[in-house]
Amino acid sequence: MAAEGDVVDLRGQYLLPGFVELHVHGGGGADFMDLTVEAFRTVARCHARHGTTTMTPTSTVGSFEQYRRFLEINAELDGTADGGARLVGGHLYGPYFRPDARGCHPAAAFLTPEPGRDAELLAFAGRGLRTLTVAPELPGALALIRAARERGLLVTAGHTYATFAELRTGVEAGVRHVDHLFCAMSDRARLRQAQAFPMRAGVLEGTLAFDELTTEVIADGHHLDEGLLHFAYKVKGPDRLALVSDTMRAVDCPDGEFWFGAVGTGERVRKLGSGGVTLDGAGLASAVVGFDHAVRLMASYPWADLPAVARMASLTPARILGLDHECGSLADGKRADLVVMDADFRVTAVYVGGVKIAN
Ligand SMILES: [Zn+2]
């Protein structure tokens, strides 16, 4: 740690607040669903090298026992940073998807909300669990959303084909965020029956319409084209739109085949350079580039100015997580979570809580 009074000359480079990650599954060869402390540390160290200083480890579809273990490790590591990004509690992602909106996640085990069983998972709220994704149209979802909000969780809607009205009901129950805008969600086209009018709005349109909702985009340059990123930025604005990496384990790994999710029970996917991974050659299954890539891409667009890009990378996700009192901007009293980037927005140094991360 730099001693008080030390001066570091950044030689004209950019100094940004450390990136705050809402949605990340893996990196550096490890996935949080490997369910070991070492795997969590490996992912956190990998992403710290890309500028991420705070993250919510995100699960993928698995069994109830896998979810419980995932939350136990999150509880054990909550608030710690061991040479990597600080872990701030898990994002439970997977059990409450709508099965036909599962995307790349393994078909293994979906849970429909059931108060007794849910309570065991919600008991980790406050230590080990910070965010819960629920498709609001599932039977029992509204009671689960209310129970999660009562425990202080961030409730997000994701992998959902809800109608506009179902999403609004979810918002009334406590949904405040929507996972990866444009991906695995209903919209006017999906809800349209042949030749039927009027056309109907879905989760996409509801997310853009409801001011209560924040959302996020995977800005890896492969999931969404510039037009969709511009559209999301224009409609939601940098205070309601966060950048996420949504990466799996192949970050910083050579091309090849990988498990998405747990080894043995996840899905086999193939990495295609920096372009993400595909499942059976059909569509993109996840991203493989760090958070710095998203910042670099957004900063290259003339319609997004740099302070707004930094906000979407740090302060906005920190506020979404309820952590903006301690991180997300460079301010007195906050953690010294810092990213130094050169003129091309390449990371040259990262500090987590004032401690420089080894490259
Ligand atoms: Zn997803």
Largest sheet: 6 strands, parallel
Q: Give the termini distance in whole angstroms.
A: 15 Å
Question: Helix share of residues?
Answer: 25-40%
So what's the oligomer here?
A: single chain
Distinct ligands: zinc ion
Number of strands: 19
> Low-confidence parts lasting 5 or more residues at pLDDT below 50?
none
Strand content: 15-25%
Q: Walk across the major sheet and give the strand order.
A: 7-8-9-10-11-12
Radius of gyration: 19 Å
Order of helices and strands: EEEEHEHEEHEHEHEHEHEEEEEHHHEEE
Spatial shape: globular
Mean pLDDT: 94
What's the helix count?
10
Helix/strand class: alpha/beta
Describe, in short, the structure shown.
This protein is 26% helix and 21% strand. It has ten helices and 19 strands.
Can you describe this structure?
- Helix content is 26%, strand content 21%.
- It is built from 10 helices and 19 strands.
- It has helices spanning 37-48, 64-77, 115-122, 141-150, 164-173, 203-209, 226-236, 291-299, 306-313, 315-320, and strands at 14-17, 19-24, 26-27, 30-31, 52-57, 86-87, 90-92, 129-133, 154-157, 177-178, 214-218, 241-244, 257-260, 267-271, 277-279, 282-286, 338-341, 347-352, 355-356.
- The protein has a 6-stranded parallel sheet.
- Helix 2 (64-77) links the parallel strand 5 and strand 6 (86-87).
- Helix 5 (164-173) packs across helix 6 (203-209) and helix 8 runs antiparallel to helix 9 (306-313).
- Zinc ion is lined by residues 103, 158-159, 179-180, 184.
